[in-house]
């Protein structure tokens, strides 16, 4: 079961490389994420970057912990158009007991870097999803 935001982001977890602490995700851009310019709204680009950085840390801790962001710094390098499939690469730069450092990139299917981010976060116990309605 994915997080409720996964459908909005069109998130698909592709894999995790434990050696480099890097998660790979695929996102399908839906119209609700875009502006009149035809690209993803800047603040929502941060959602993609945050998602892949978070998955990297969750995977690196075998699902036991999740990051709680203190700050995210982002660079927008290209328009992410509606209908595009983008690839997210998120990596744990350093995972400590009190603070963790993460980074991510969003790439077009052709490999062009569209956005990048870094995050400083604190490690927390991974939240337990509430039971589904009707259970």
Automatic annotation (TrEMBL):
<keyword id="KW-0378">Hydrolase</keyword>
<feature type="domain" description="Thioesterase">
    <location>
        <begin position="42"/>
        <end position="114"/>
    </location>
</feature>
<dbReference type="InterPro" id="IPR006683">
    <property type="entry name" value="Thioestr_dom"/>
</dbReference>
<comment type="similarity">
    <text>Belongs to the thioesterase PaaI family.</text>
</comment>
<dbReference type="GO" id="GO:0047617">
    <property type="term" value="F:fatty acyl-CoA hydrolase activity"/>
</dbReference>
<protein>
    <submittedName>
        <fullName>PaaI family thioesterase</fullName>
    </submittedName>
</protein>
<dbReference type="InterPro" id="IPR029069">
    <property type="entry name" value="HotDog_dom_sf"/>
</dbReference>
<dbReference type="Pfam" id="PF03061">
    <property type="entry name" value="4HBT"/>
</dbReference>
<dbReference type="InterPro" id="IPR039298">
    <property type="entry name" value="ACOT13"/>
</dbReference>
């Amino acid at each position: 079961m994915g997080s409720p935001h996964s459908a909005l982001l069109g998130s698909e977890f592709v894999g995790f490389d434990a050696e480099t602490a890097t998660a790979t995700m695929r996102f399908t851009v839906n119209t609700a994420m875009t502006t009149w310019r035809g690209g993803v709204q800047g603040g929502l680009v941060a959602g993609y970057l945050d998602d892949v950085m978070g998955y990297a840390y969750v995977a690196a801790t075998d699902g036991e912990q999740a990051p709680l962001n203190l700050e995210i710094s982002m660079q927008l390098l290209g328009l992410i158009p509606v209908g595009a499939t983008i690839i997210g690469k998120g990596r744990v730069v350093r995972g400590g007991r009190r603070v963790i450092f993460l980074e991510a990139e969003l790439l077009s299917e052709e490999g062009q870097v569209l956005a990048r981010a870094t995050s400083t976060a604190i490690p927390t116990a991974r939240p337990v999803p509430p039971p589904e309605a009707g259970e």
